[in-house]
Design brief:
CATH topology of the largest domain: Growth Hormone, Chain: A
CATH class of the largest domain: Mainly Alpha
Number of helices: 13
Number of strands: 0
Strand content: under 5%
CATH superfamily of the largest domain: MFS general substrate transporter like domains
Structural class: mainly alpha
Order of helices and strands: HHHHHHHHHHHHH
Length: 268
């Protein structure tokens, strides 16, 4: 049998107001905002802009950064950022860069009218997915290093709670703001510009939190499971080349099959 240390109710409730737990609540909010700005909120915007439903579904590819963030996670874990590393530390420097990228991508999306420039909107959505996935990587690393195992469960719970709040803000909040500036039954781009600008402003909660908290103090240990940084760079380059090859193959295959589909339709 394992003996468990008994804690008083006061100590249990005191964990809720621990600085690290509160930090994870605000960082969770920062992590929960971008994801719906790529998925449901963006889908509604595109439908209002008159974009074809089949085209709207392709924008889900913008969130692939969340699925493949393990590819560049080792580089973020090992590479220090010039200048910022000495000022903020490894985790906070990467975090502030990721949050700055998220804010820039959200503003880029807000200033782009999908009814006029759908390609630019797609690039902005991909940039947001990449920056948001990078932020998730750094937040996970920060949570693990910031406190002992006794506080990890509470920090994870606070992070999830903040994440859900961020999703509500980016979902219902963004749609409500857009509705306030948009006449009923009409599409007005400036309404969505205001909504996405407000979401970029909400991201300042995460930026302020990153600037206020302290950098975790950890001791790096050598391990046989670690590789050289150059190995991770080569792996990332190989992954990037694979993605480019897949895209080119998809485009080339489309150019070949489109005439065939047209011929079959005409003959049918």
């Amino acid at each position: 049998m394992h003996s468990a240390e008994k804690r008083s109710w006061g100590e249990a409730f005191g964990a809720f107001i621990h600085p690290r737990v509160i930090t994870m609540l605000f960082l969770g909010l920062s992590a929960g905002i971008p994801i719906l700005l790529i998925f449901s909120t963006l889908s509604i915007w595109l439908r209002e802009a008159g974009v074809d439903r089949s085209t709207v579904t392709y924008f889900s590819w913008a969130a692939l950064g969340y699925s493949f963030k393990f590819v560049w996670a080792p580089l973020i874990d090992r590479l220090p950022l010039p200048v910022l590393h000495g000022i903020l530390g490894r985790r906070r420097s990467w975090l502030i860069i990721a949050q700055g990228g998220i804010i820039a991508a959200i503003l880029w999306m807000g200033l782009t009218d999908p009814a006029e420039n759908l390609t630019m909107m797609a690039f902005a959505a991909v940039a947001l997915g990449f920056a948001s996935a990078t932020q998730d990587i750094v937040i996970d690393a920060y949570r693990i290093e910031a406190a002992d195992a006794d506080l990890q469960a509470m920090m994870s719970s606070a992070y999830i709670g903040g994440y859900r709040i961020g999703m509500i803000v980016a979902g219902a909040g963004a749609l409500t703001i857009a509705g306030l500036f948009e006449a009923e039954g009409t599409y007005q781009h400036h309404a969505w510009t205001v909504a996405y600008a407000c979401m970029a402003l909400a991201m300042c909660v995460g930026v302020i939190t990153t600037l206020l908290v302290s950098e975790p103090k950890v001791v790096k240990l050598d391990s046989k499971y670690f590789h050289e940084t150059s190995d991770y760079v080569r792996f990332l380059a190989m992954f990037a080349l694979t993605v480019v090859a897949f895209i080119l193959a998809n485009v080339y295959a489309g150019n070949i099959t489109d005439p065939l589909k047209t011929a079959l339709t005409d003959n049918g």
